[in-house]
Write a structure and sequence with these properties.
With 348 residues, this protein is α/β, with parallel strands linked by helices. It has a single domain, classed as Ribokinase (UDP-N-acetylmuramoyl-L-alanine:D-glutamate ligase), CATH 3.40.1190. It contains twelve helices and 15 strands. Strands 1, 4, 9, 10, 11, 12, 13, 14 and 15 form a nine-stranded mixed beta sheet that branches. Helix 2 links the parallel strand 5 and strand 6. The radius of gyration is 19 Å and the shape is globular.
Length: 348
């Protein structure tokens, strides 16, 4: 089976119970997660061999993060150790008209202080067919951006398929200005075969906007075909890209979203059905679960982009029902939803 490697930072997530606000909390639930580690967990659940590469502090908290990955079937032997602390983020879960809120505490984390040459990418990429990174990693620090570039260059030389989720995070890009950020992301993305991002990612990283529609004012009425121009502009900017994918989230409220996706291969715009996700349990990691489902789908259905895209959207739809960062579902559960069974009946 195709082996996948993902690279990024795993963090300690601390969240008040249920829908409590930070000011109401007397305790916090503990979860470990992060963009690329969440993708790795999804792939492991689907039976894909996958390694997660990061830098962790050699202390009890770093060990706990590593054990969480190992428990989920993710390869951890390429993780490097060093630094003083694990990055943390605090999550306040919103409801109805009150949105969720994230506060980062990841300055001087082990991953933020990673340097060129610390990871032996030749060894990491032995027997690997797919490498995945996200826009979160270069946003952490210049060092993590440099190492990410080091990785994509080696992966490209070896003919490994490279994917990215652009994942713009305004609260993270603090060490450089917008022009430098665009330069970093443009160079990194130029190595990618598969590019995933929503309309905000494309605009904030590259100044690319959908033509003829205001996403912010249209909300959940956004039509898939409105994003054809985004996909075409992305392919023009990044000639190596074979497929550009956009997730379409309509936010009716914090508890009710619509969810769909489109994929453009340079000729055809594929689109999925639109899911109505009501009574959301946890939307964090929704995009990561889409990416995990997409990688699996493209590996399993290499000649069927529609099926791969449908799998990704169904998988991420299910993620919204699961507490925590990672999508803990099986292929059978995703395929059941793809087949139209959204009844939620008890399996006896």
């Amino acid at each position: 089976m195709s082996k996948v490697v993902t690279f990024g930072e795993i963090m300690l997530r601390l969240a008040p119970e249920g829908f409590l606000r930070f000011s109401q909390a007397s305790s916090f639930d503990v979860v470990y997660g992060g963009g690329e580690s969440n993708v790795a967990v999804s792939l492991a659940n689907y039976g894909i061999p996958v390694d997660f590469v990061t830098r962790l502090p050699k202390n009890d908290i770093g060990e706990c993060a590593m054990m969480e990955l190992r428990k989920r079937g993710v390869g951890v032997d390429k993780i490097i150790w060093g630094g003083d602390r694990l990055g943390i983020y605090f999550l306040e879960t919103g409801a109805v008209s009150r949105g969720s809120k994230v506060v980062y505490d990841r300055a001087h984390s082990a991953m933020s202080e990673i340097k060129l040459g610390m990871i032996d990418w030749d060894e990491v990429f032995q027997g690997v067919e797919w490498f995945h990174w996200t826009g979160i990693t270069p946003a952490i620090s210049q060092g993590s951006a440099d190492v990410c570039l080091e990785a994509v260059k080696v992966a490209s030389e070896k003919g490994i398929t490279i994917s990215t989720d652009l994942n713009y995070r305004a609260k993270l890009w603090k060490y450089c200005d917008a022009a430098h950020r665009e330069s970093i992301m443009t160079e990194l993305t130029s190595y990618c075969d598969i590019v995933l991002g929503n309309e905000e990612d494309a605009e904030m990283h590259f100044g690319i906007k959908p033509e003829g529609i205001s996403v912010q004012t249209e909300g959940h009425n956004v039509k898939a075909e409105a994003f054809l121009s985004v996909c075409q502009q992305m392919m023009k900017k990044f000639p190596k890209a074979k497929k550009v994918i956009t997730t379409l989230r309509g936010s009716i409220s914090a508890s009710h979203n619509t969810w769909a996706g489109v994929l453009y291969d340079g000729k055809t715009l594929f689109e999925t059905r639109q899911y109505q996700i009501t009574d959301i349990v946890d939307r964090v990691g929704g995009g990561d679960s889409f990416m995990g489902g997409l990688i699996y789908g493209l590996l399993k259905y290499p000649e069927d982009d529609q099926n791969a895209l449908d799998f990704a959207v169904a998988a991420s739809c299910l993620k919204h029902t699961i507490k925590g960062d990672a999508n803990l579902v099986t292929v059978a559960e995703v395929e059941k939803l793809m087949g139209g069974d959204a009844s939620g009946r008890v399996a006896r």
